[in-house]
């Protein structure tokens, strides 16, 4: 089974951390990040990531939170989607839609490790909280059919 075939599936985020060169470690979505990342056979992907326990908007209106509620919601979640491809040892996300406007229309490269049950993504260094940081996103495959090297899943 090819790496592309093995990558296809749905993953639950287990951990997200970012690191500075001086050793600072950050967890942008806390110690229990929530998220799902999907890679389809048609070469589309989507990721929705968030901090656990985000507060609800007081009025319950999906489009009319207060400025503070909307700012907090944006700061504690991230979502993006588009086409994906493998180029060498990296997954390339060709982003079409994203909550971070600067990423629309960009290519986001990720080194990765893939086993039958886990996917770990290593985004390149990027500016976060005013410092250049590199990151690690650890995921586990969801579903009854786990894909491995030993046959179709």
Q: Keywords for this structure?
A:
153 residues; eight-stranded antiparallel beta barrel; 10 strands; globular; mainly beta
Instruction: Determine the oligomeric state from the structure.
Output: single chain
The CATH topology is Lipocalin
Helical proportion?
under 10%
User: Could you spell the SSE succession in H and E letters?
Assistant: HEEEEHEEEEEE
Give a quick account of the main beta sheet: strands, pairing sense, barrel closure. 8 strands, antiparallel, barrel
Number of helices: 2
Looking at the overall shape, the CATH architecture is Beta Barrel
Rg calc: 16 Å
Q: Low-confidence runs (pLDDT<50, min 5 residues)? A: 147-153
Give a description of the structure.
The chain has 153 residues and is mostly beta strands. Helix content is 9%, strand content 48%. The protein has a single domain, classed as Beta Barrel (Lipocalin), CATH 2.40.128. It has helices at 3-7, 67-75, and strands at residues 9-19, 25-26, 34-39, 44-50, 77-87, 90-98, 107-114, 118-122, 126-128, 131-142. It has an eight-stranded antiparallel barrel with strand order 1-3-4-5-6-7-8-10. A hairpin with a 3-residue loop joins strand 7 and strand 8. The longest helix has 9 residues, at 67-75. It starts with a helix and ends in an 11-residue tail after the last strand.
């Amino acid at each position: 089974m090819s790496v592309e075939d093995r990558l296809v599936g749905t993953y639950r985020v287990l951990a997200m951390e970012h690191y500075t060169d001086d050793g600072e470690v950050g967890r942008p979505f806390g110690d229990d990040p929530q998220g799902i990342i999907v890679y389809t056979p048609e070469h589309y992907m989507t990721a929705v990531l968030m901090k656990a326990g985000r507060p609800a908007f007081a009025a319950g209106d999906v489009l009319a939170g207060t400025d503070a509620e909307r700012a907090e919601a944006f700061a504690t979640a991230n979502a993006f989607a588009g086409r994906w491809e493998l180029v060498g040892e990296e997954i390339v996300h060709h982003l079409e839609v994203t909550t971070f406007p600067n990423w629309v229309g960009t290519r986001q490269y990720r080194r990765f490790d893939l086993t039958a049950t886990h996917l770990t993504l290593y985004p390149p260094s990027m500016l976060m909280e005013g410092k250049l940081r590199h990151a690690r996103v650890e995921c586990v495959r969801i579903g009854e059919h786990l894909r491995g090297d030993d046959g179709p899943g």
